[in-house]
Design goal:
mainly alpha; 0% strand
């Protein structure tokens, strides 16, 4: 096997993988996560202006309440209302991200 060709293919593979990796937002940055996870699409900037009146305003809510609601939607405990859409949105959130987003929203006035 030609070492030069193998090395070139390996480097090309690394470059391809690197180009496909999206930036990861630190779980501590709830505001950035809120944007990166597309929460504002339905709940509006800073959780203040939902696109549909039946969607909740999230700003200023109690952090523990937000964490509990997101986790119940994610695990299927909470159903009904807009939870079907939220289930898809929460599927890729880990506990640290849920905490960070909830902390951020609880501080928005």
């Amino acid at each position: 096997m030609n070492v030069k060709i193998t090395a070139q293919c390996t480097l090309a593979g690394f470059a391809l993988v690197a180009s496909m990796i999206t930036p990861v937002v630190a779980a501590e940055d709830g505001k950035a996560l809120y944007t990166a996870k597309m929460c504002m699409t339905c709940h509006g900037d800073e959780g203040k202006a939902p696109i549909i009146p039946s969607y909740p305003k999230l700003n200023g809510q109690n952090k523990e309440y937000l964490v509990a609601q997101i986790k119940m939607i994610k695990d299927g405990t909470r159903t009904g209302g807009g939870t079907a859409a939220m289930k898809a949105m929460t599927a890729n959130l880990n506990d640290a991200e849920i905490e960070a987003i909830s902390e951020y929203l609880s501080t928005v006035e």
